[in-house]
Here is the input.
Amino acid sequence: MKVLVVGNGAREHAIATALSRSSDKPDLYAFMSAVNPGIARLVKNYGIGNICSPEQVVKYAVENGIHLAVVGPEAPLEAGVVDSLEENRIPCVGPRRKPAQIETDKSFCRNLMRKNKVKGCPKFGIFEDVKDACDYIDKIGVDIVIKPAGLTGGKGVKVMGEHFDKKGAKGYVKEVLDTRMGVIPKVILEERLIGEEFTLQAFVDGRNVVGMPAVQDHKRAYEGDVGPNTGGMGSYSDAGYLLPFISKKDYDDGLSIMKETITVIKKETGEEYKGFLYGQFMATKDGVKVIEFNARLGDPEAMNVLSLLESDMTDVCRKIAAGSLDDKVKFSGKATVCKYMVPEGYPDKPLNNVEVNVDEKKINALGGQVYYASVREENGRILTSKSRAIAVLGLSGTISEAEKVVEESMKHISGKLFYRKDIGTKKLIEKRIKHMKQIRGK
Ligand code: GLY
Here is the structure.
C-alpha cells in the first residue's frame, strides 16, 4: 500500500507519524513545498513543488503509483487537488473543492447554516459594501467579530472589544473590503460570542462522523492570553474525550452540529464531505455555538489527537475514502499537551533563518515527541522560516504530567526562539474553569 501525504507542516508530520505506526507498514510518500525533516525521514520518497497545483500533485501521485492520498492543509483543498486526484482514480482523505467551502468561504458556511437551520449559528450579516457593513455595526448594538470571507491563513479575524473599538472595527471592515483581503470580496460580521473555546475534530466518510477527543488551542502569542493572534501557540486535551470546563452535553451537541452540517453540505453541493472536519466551538451560557469550521485537522490540535490514536491510521484513512467508516476508532485515555517553539518576534516581526538545535534523543527519552513545522534542513542544519517552528508534545495520565514532559523537553531545543510556558498549567486551566462557572452561573 502506497500512501501519499500532501503538505509539510507539523500537522502533516503528525499525520505521517500516525500512518507510519500502522500494522501493515504502508510505503509513505510526501509531496511538499519544502523539506520537512521529520516527514522526510518517514517516507520512502518525496517530491518538492507547488502543493496547490493539482497537475503537479497528480503527476507525482501517478508516477509513484499512489493508492491513497491524505491532503493536510486547506489551500490545496481549495485549489481542487482532491478533485483532480479522484478524477485520476486515486482515493483521497480530504474534501473536494465544493464541500471544502465550509472553510474556504465563510459566507458559504454561514448561509448554509442559516438556510438549513443548523443549530449553534450566531447572528451574522454578509456585506460587500462598506457603508452597509458600518450601518450593521451601528444597528446590532453588541461587540462584533469581523471575518474576511476567504482564506487568510488564520490572521484575518478580528474582534471588536479585543482588538479595537467601534471606530477601529469600521476601519478594519473598510480595509478588508478595499484590499479584497482573503480574495473573496465579502466580509462577515457576527455577534461576539462569550465563553470558552474548544476544538472538536472528526473523521468523516461522507455519511458517518466519528468524533475525536476535544482540544483547547491558544491563539494569542504571549502568556496570559495577550498579544497578537497566531495560528495557535499550543493546545491540550484531557484524559477521555472532554475538557475540564466542558460537559458531555457540550461535546455531544458539538458533534451533532457537525453531523447536521455534513448532511446539509451534501444537500447544497451535491457532493459528499470526506476527510477530517474541524469544528471550533464556543461553550456559552446558552449552549454550544459554532465559531467556524475547517476542512482539515487543526494545527496544533492534530498533534494532540493523532498522538492518542490507537486504531490503525491507514485503516481509518482507507475507510474514510471508501465510505465505510465505523464507530470503532479508538483513542488512548491519556492527556496531552502540545507547545510551539516560534522564532523571536513572531508573529509581527519574526526573525528569519534562525538556526535551531534539537536533541530529539533526549526529548524522546523524556517521553516527548517532536513535530517539525516551518523549518527546513540544509546541509545538516535546521533553519526556521518566519512561522511556527517546532511543536513538542507530551502525553501522560494527566494534563499536568503531560505539561511537565513538554517543559523538560523544551530544555533540549535551542535557538532564538520562544514559547508559551503557561499552556497546560494548572493555573491557566483553573482560570478557564472559573470563567466557565461565571458564565453559566454555577
Ligand atoms: N489551530 C487552529 C487551526 O488549525 O485552525
User: Anything to note?
Assistant: The chain has three domains: 2-96, 129-185, 196-429. Residues 129-185 form a domain with the Dna Ligase; domain 1 fold (CATH 3.30.1490).
